[in-house]
Model the fold of this input.
Amino acid sequence: MVRASWEDKTALGGNAMKIYTREEGMLALKPERIEACRAAGVIVLGFGEKTPDDGIVIADCRPRGFVGWRGPDDPAATILYVGSVFRPTKTYYFDSFERALKRAKKLAA
Done:
């Protein structure tokens, strides 16, 4: 299988942006959200895999106004990083995971 480069995709009129999420670490989603992402065609990165700089990253974050340590049963908001995680071009904050996934698909299209 031959993978097309970024230049090939843009020359053909395709979009080079893909949607990623993490399975472990600080940017990890909750397990039920990871399954929803897999069903939606999101690329799930494992431990040690580098997050690409040319995509959209979906990550869980603390809800606004939440104080204290976040455990597995606590509510989580969702944030989208467009571009690099450490120097994003744009970030989007959502209280609803479904809205975040819908927006990520719209941005990637």
